[in-house]
Amino acid sequence: MEQLLIEQGDITQLEVDCIVNAANRSLLGGGGVDGAIHRAAGPELLAECRTLHGCQTGEAKLTRGYNLKARYVIHTVGPIYAGTPQDARLLASCYRNSLELAREHHICSIAFPAISTGVYGYPIEEAAPIAVNTVGAWLEEHPDCPIAVVMCCFSRRAFTLYRGAADALHQTQKGPE
Ligand code: APR
């Protein structure tokens, strides 16, 4: 079964168990995909987020999805791009910690946005392989966890870059011809 899919679209419309929000450390909403998810979920999402008392960069916290099609939202805080090795480590942690949380809650399908590639300035050419390779490695390390992962790209350019990273990953997983 293809466990890692790359799609283009609006993450708030996806019919998956869980969508991931690219939040900020306050977890009190913002612009970009954070704003879109809060608008689609309704005010109860913010009310629940208030009870979480924020989230550290690289960490992830779960709430219900309220008016979203998705039953859950996992809020994770990506790094603000600084051009240091820490950026990649923190970005990878967002994907890994979100997948761990999904596994704990027996979530069977999850969609990620391109975390940190908007307001937080992470160059998407760098972020795409980090996202895809981190998810691919986690899925390989957890064969017992049949979770389907969608990378939901908002722009055509993001979709092309994520597809390229996924194709490169499949090549390495298949090994030499
Ligand atoms: N569906 C899917 N992806 C989306 C959507 C959407 N509806 N809206 C935006 N995106 C994409 C952007 O195009 C970008 O590729 O999500 C990616 C992440 O961009 P941002 O939302 O700006 O998130 P990020 O770069 O992680 O910055 C987080 O921005 O919105 C604030 O509160 C948020 O302070 C936090 C910061």
Protein described:
The chain is an alpha/beta fold and 177 residues long. It starts with a strand and ends with a helix. 42% of the residues lie in helices and 18% in strands. It is built from 5 helices and 6 strands; from the N terminus they run ββααββαβαβα. A 6-stranded mixed β-sheet has the order 1-6-5-2-4-3, sandwiched between helices. The protein has one domain: Leucine Aminopeptidase, subunit E, domain 1. Helix 3 packs across helix 4 (124-141) and helix 4 packs across helix 5 (156-174). Adenosine-5-diphosphoribose is lined by residues 10-12, 22-24, 30-36, 78, 113-120, 152, 154-155, 158.
What's the topology here?
Layout: E1 4-8, E2 18-23, H1 32-41, H2 43-50, E3 60-64, E4 72-77, H3 85-104, E5 109-112, H4 124-141, E6 148-153, H5 156-174
Parallel strand pairs: 1-6, 2-4, 2-5, 5-6
Antiparallel strand pairs: 3-4
The structure holds adenosine-5-diphosphoribose (APR).
